[in-house]
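Worked example (supplementary).
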Amino acid sequence: MGQRKWTVGVDFGGTNIKVGVVDGQGKVAGEAVLSTRDHATPSAFAEGLDEAIDQLADRLGLTREGLCGAGIGAPGLIDVRRGLVYRLVNVPGGWPNVPLARLLEQRLRCPCAVDNDVNVVALGEWRFGAGRGTLNSVYITLGTGVGGGLVINGQLFRGITGSAGEIGHMAISLDGPRCACGRRGCLEAFVGTAALLRNARHAGQSGGRILARLTRQHRGRLTPELISQAAQAGDQAAIRIWQEFGRDLGLALANVVHLLSPERIVIGGGISRAWPLFAPSLMTTIRQEAFEVPANACHIVRAKLGDRAGIIGGAVLVWEQQRRIDD
Amino acid sequence: MGQRKWTVGVDFGGTNIKVGVVDGQGKVAGEAVLSTRDHATPSAFAEGLDEAIDQLADRLGLTREGLCGAGIGAPGLIDVRRGLVYRLVNVPGGWPNVPLARLLEQRLRCPCAVDNDVNVVALGEWRFGAGRGTLNSVYITLGTGVGGGLVINGQLFRGITGSAGEIGHMAISLDGPRCACGRRGCLEAFVGTAALLRNARHAGQSGGRILARLTRQHRGRLTPELISQAAQAGDQAAIRIWQEFGRDLGLALANVVHLLSPERIVIGGGISRAWPLFAPSLMTTIRQEAFEVPANACHIVRAKLGDRAGIIGGAVLVWEQQRRIDD
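After joint prediction of all chains, the assembly is encoded as:
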């Protein structure tokens, strides 16, 4: 079994670094978790990753010779061609201008690729998850930040700067609430977690009785989960919050359908757990706002890979880069 | 010279059908014009085109054996892979479900390709005009309709339905004026010719004195050209109309920059003649509304090929299809 080929995917988050061994079918054969705080410098990360890979190889009976490469998704602005981190967010120091791919290659002695975490998840969902089998698939992640990634003609499309797919900052209104980016009217300012909680606080004050009670039971700590619970329990204000969430998301996605006419839009991220609550108004809005032919041809679906999307996507990133070199 | 290779591009409009001979450098060596009314059925069009090609070949000393193919841009919904017209707009009967490419190939005895006129112009501007040398270029045409075409990774991107690039119907506002498509808030409802004239009529009533005088001199027939003349003559209301035009266009294009981070956006169509009047507010808006890195990397430029863009793009369409077959 020593000759078996395997690939490592790494999901570099603000709290944890998840490392997984991925086989050619996109299955995660084994996983390890490192603390981001303990690996908060590039060299500590390279060292910790090297050790984790050794341990995983031992556990799974694999040899380092069979390792095709390691692909890392990290939160921030990254030049994937040069494997260069411009800056990371939620990571101490931000790693400005760190040539991370080269650094990792020296330590791990295998090809390494680095890209923005949302792009990597988009790639994983496209290849092995809810976007599987399509040529053109748009991924959007819903959470504190609202991000996206585009697969076009079977390739991740990054634009000239690597920043393509910023669906969260497409404006859906000439004014609207202020976004974390400083602008007004961004989709994220309508459907990001902060907006959701703000709407819910307002609703709790103005009639959302079940929601208000649930919030009190949680010592005033309102969460998206509580808004979902309240809606499921019949709280009209909470139901309306999710309806409006679906409508606002639908306005942005209708613009994406106008521009790209994709086969599929995959919706992931923590907030996508509320799918049954916002999907009806989302679908209605897209059918109303996009043209009939591209709207009918575009399937809107939930992401499938869950917490492992980043690991799986990391492996796909390695294969994508190797294919590019082979061309 | 009989062996020389040449390609025909056809710009099929509601009034005229322009036929041109295009060489490998994108130069139009000769042109002919047919009346659309006299060639308003597929067979009359095929016959007229065949004769026009013969005459052009005679005039230019070319042989039909050297003809690589003919590429047609027509206004409507077209399945480019099958060369099938779903329907044409502004053409009698609309040619529903006409297999136009096959019909033309039978008559012309050379490969024929058909696509939407805006896509064809986008292709021409990308290959030989203002998008030249880029991998990713977005084209937008400004006029009665506001349309677009996307070149991604050096290929026209049509999406799954052939309808990608509908920039004119991306919404920039939750409400806003009613669009010709029946929806509200579309870019076209803000910057299409009808919106421009409506704004100008309002301005003429509310203080645009130069504009009002010019309009009277033209027997009340207001045109975009007159609004430009009034602005150039210092009419503050007319100046403001173009500033707002640039801002509204900038809001939509900032969304395009967020999503695609293209290298270039090429602005064409009749209304683009007012470029000096709306470009400053357009640029300001994009810099404000898009992120700095992709905004700086995206050059917004005027189209270069003018009235010949459709003919030149038609030839590029032929070459694109032949490359696809060769692959």
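Two points are worth noting when inspecting this output. The mean pLDDT of chain B is 94. Chain B touches chain A through 45 residues (CB under 8 Å).
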